[in-house]
Amino acid sequence: MDRRRFISTVAAGIAAPFAGVACAGVQGGAKPVRGGYGPLRPVRDLRDGEVRLHLPDGFAYRSFSAAGDEFSDGSRVPGRHDGMAAFTGQDGSAVLVRNHEVNGPVGAFGDRADAYDPMAGGGTSTLRVTRHGEVLRSAPSLNGTMMNCSGGPMAWGAWVSCEETVNGPDVGDDSSGGDNTRLTMKHGYLFEVPVDGTATRRPIRSAGRFPHESAAFDPATGAIYLTEDNFGFPSGFYRYLPPKHPVQAGRLLDGGRLQMLAVKGAKRKDLSAGQRPGTTYATRWVDIDDPDPAFTGRPANDEAVQAVGRQGRAEGAAIFSRLEGAVHHQGTVYFVSTQGGDTSPDDPPPSGFGDGRGQVWAYETGGGRLRLVYESPRSSVLDLPDNVTVSARGTLVLCEDGDDGNYLRGLTGSGRIFDFCRLEPIPGDPGAEFAGSTFGPGGHTLYVNIQAKHGTSIAIWGPWERGLF
C-alpha cells in the first residue's frame, strides 16, 4: 500500500469508532447511574484463565503483549503500559501504538543504537492485533525516551507520544531518585511515531519542555492541544501552533508557537477548585516566549518542571490540577483534571496538587468557550480519572487512577456516569490502574492497558449495543 493511500485509510480508521458521536451534548449536573450494562462479575482471561477484570454479562477479553513478553524481533516488551491509540490495519486487524511510561536511567529497550537516549527506558511499541487480542506482529517504534505517559492519534497517520518529565543531565534528579547525570539527552518533549514505521526520534522542542500528558489534534486549524500533569504544582492547558498544517506537511513540524489558556477578565483563574458543572468561561491565549528553556547550574527538578508553566501564569494563564487525558471530537477538546474539585467529605485529599476526585472539561476550539462538564462528588462515583476516549454513542470512557479498585467508567451524553469494568486487585501492586483505552476499527473491540509492575494490554468485546457505549 502506498503511503498516501495508507494515510487515508488510517485517518478513516481513527474516525470510524467516533462516527455519529454526539459528545458535545454532555451536560453538567451528572447523576450517578449504576449498571450501564448491568452488574459486574469476575471474568476469566481467555489467554490464561486468570481473573483480571470484572465485566457485565456477555463480555469477554484476552490479555496480550505483557511486560517481559517477546516482540516479533525477539527483544523484550517493556513495562508501564500507558497511553495508546488504535488505527485500521489490514484484513480487519487493528494497529496499536502504545506508550511505555518508564522512568530513570535504566537503559533503552530494543536496539540501543537507534535510541534517542541510550540510557532512557521509555518509548512506544507498535502492534498489529486481531479484534480478539491475538498479536500478529509487534516491534519497538520509539526508544530512548522517558516517562511516555499519553499522547494522541493524528489524522495524517501518526501517534504523538508525550514525555511527562523534564529529566536530563542539565537538571537535578527527580523524586524517583534516578541519577540524571547518567542521561545523555534532555527530556520533556513530544515525539511523532508514524503508524507505518518507526520514529525519527527528533523532539518537537517548540511544543515545550514540561511534563506533557496528552495531545489532541484539531483538524480545522492544525493546532495540537496539550495537557500538563505537574503532580505537585499547578498545571496548564496548552496549544501548539505548528508552522504548517500537519496534514498538509504530512508530519508535525518544529518551529511553531506554544500558548497557554487563560480566562478572560480573571488573571491566573484557579480552576482546580470545586465549582458547579455547566459553569462556562470565555478564554484567551497567552504566548510562551521560551518553550524550551536552557538551564544552567543544574536547577532542582522541582524548579525546572515549572519553568514553562510559570511563564504562562505570569501572563495570567489559568490554573488546573493535574491535567491528563484529552480527546478531540467535532470541534471540542474534552480533557480531564485528575485531582480537580472540592475535597470530598467521604475521602481524604489525595497527595499532590489538588484536593478533589476529578473534573472533566470541554474546550470549544472555534469559539473559545471552556465548560466544566462534570465534577466527581466522591471516589465511589469517580476516582481520579486519567486517560479518556470516546465511544460510538458519544460516551466518554474514563480510566481511573484511584487508590483502590480502579474502574473504567462511562460518562454519557445526558450526563450519567456508570461503571463498565473493574480491575481485579493485584496482590502486592496497589498502584495498578487502567490506561490507554481506545476503540478499534468499527467499534468491535475496546483495547485498554493495565499499568502495573507487570503490565499488559487487553482486548474487550461483547454486546455494546445493549448499553451506553
TrEMBL record:
<dbReference type="Pfam" id="PF05787">
    <property type="entry name" value="PhoX"/>
</dbReference>
<protein>
    <submittedName>
        <fullName>DUF839 domain-containing protein</fullName>
    </submittedName>
</protein>
<feature type="signal peptide">
    <location>
        <begin position="1"/>
        <end position="24"/>
    </location>
</feature>
<dbReference type="InterPro" id="IPR008557">
    <property type="entry name" value="PhoX"/>
</dbReference>
<keyword id="KW-0732">Signal</keyword>
